[in-house]
Amino acid sequence: MKPYPLSIRPYGLRAVLVEWPSTVDEAILEDILCFYRYLKTKCLKDTGWEMIPAYNSLTLVQNYKLVDFKNFSAKLKKWYAEKSGTIPEQRYLWRLPVCYDLDFGIDLELASEKLRLSVPEIIEQHTAHVYRVYGIGFLPGFMYLGGLPESLEITRKETPRLKVAKGAVGLAGKQTGIYPQESPGGWNIIGNCPVSIFNAKEDHPCLVSVGDQIQFYSISRAEYDLHKIEGEVGIYKIEKLKIDA
């Protein structure tokens, strides 16, 4: 894996921001995750550091003390040069059910008009692709999924909604994603996922990690209602497949 030119700068008194070239690229994401793994397992174990990988950056937050930026940035450059051969953590492909019923896909017909695709064509294309998790944020458990086909690229809504339902599946620009809880939002809503990938009561509240993959599959309204109940009582098992390194 080739090295990239890095930008390292302070991010307040207790954090450091490491940035790769500003491009959404799977090779860059892989490099970030390898460096993240190297720091986590070799350099910053049990030292109060929290690390957040996303798109083309890695944010490192020190929870207990101020950061000596000059010394720490020099260490980061040295560690980055040493990370070659690091094996990333195990990745998974998560298959998530989505109901594209118009009661849930409240922007499907408008998206159909704008994209010049029929509603069935939008559903077919949305479920045919595998998406990469490039970041988790905005809301706890909100996945920013890259890999949307160009034919489904659509601008955000000019006026965001004050309430978007939990589980809403949306499109915005080159991305798709799921709202993990009710919130305001400006994405184009095309369906709803009845099962949650985030549970604040768990030690690891978000099932999915940056670098994992997501694939959606279409379900009927009756299947949605069933899976919703199964999820609420804790018996629904999300399909999870290992991705070969």
UniProtKB/TrEMBL annotation:
<keyword id="KW-0378">Hydrolase</keyword>
<protein>
    <submittedName>
        <fullName>5-oxoprolinase subunit PxpB</fullName>
        <ecNumber>3.5.2.9</ecNumber>
    </submittedName>
</protein>
